[in-house]
Amino acid sequence: MPNPFLARETGFIRLCGHRGHNMTAPENTFAAFRAAHELGATSIEIDTVLTADRQIIVLHDLLVDRTSNGSGAAREMTAAEIAALDAGSWFDPRFAGEKIPTLAETIALAHELDLVLEVEIKEKVNLDAYYEALEAVVANPADRDRVMMISFDHASLKAVKARIPGLRTGGIAHERYSDPVAVARMSDLDELCIDLDVFDPADAAALHDAGIAIRCHAYKPSAWEEARRAGLGWDENLAAWLKGGLIDTLSGDDIGWLKNFVDSALK
């Protein structure tokens, strides 16, 4: 079976919605995931934490305050209590009643929409319980094959991969490494998630030679306007890297904008 996170095996570059399409829908909700898919996303990046009853939910923060009508730490609330919250009205009244989904529910939606998931581990308090819960959620190989677990904490990725055979992991990189292949191999990573601002084509080629996938995060269109004014050359560079096959997944906040860029670059 081809690796769904490597463009040379799938034949296409994935477009990944950062927390779904968070420009037009509340982040990390089904509304944002469906919006991303409708705009052409084939992947979504989500964030996950653990509840009091050891269920993994899709939430960026450790607290529910910012993205729901609730208050308090997710770890002190049950999954049922969290499911009862309104996670949409804070963004726009049109999304009233939108829920904070579980990871299991999101994987089911990924099957429905034929998406793959980049699942960031945001849990900070009880990683052992998180790993145990994750093992149950991805027990089905068909579910596990759609998932790339990602984190800034590469040591935690190595630990979870040792516990769950066949699980893919991706390390997030906001800075350049002197030897990215060594970094990836040291933590047994399948992917490096590299910010556009620190993307290096020579490093990308070396990672691909080692069989390691690459997700490049390309921010919001407003960040591009600032980069253009600063003369950073992102437009020309990213187009060349896409044409050169150096990127497997391109992620960002505005999927429509990213799709137009990729379509133009690959003409």
UniProtKB/TrEMBL annotation:
Gene3D superfamilies: Phosphatidylinositol (PI) phosphodiesterase (3.20.20.190). Keywords: Hydrolase. Its EC number is 3.1.4.46. InterPro entries: GP_PDE_dom, PLC-like_Pdiesterase_TIM-brl. It is an enzyme of class 3 (hydrolase). GO terms for molecular function: glycerophosphodiester phosphodiesterase activity. Residues 13-262 form the GP-PDE domain. It comes from the Bacteria. This is Glycerophosphoryl diester phosphodiesterase.
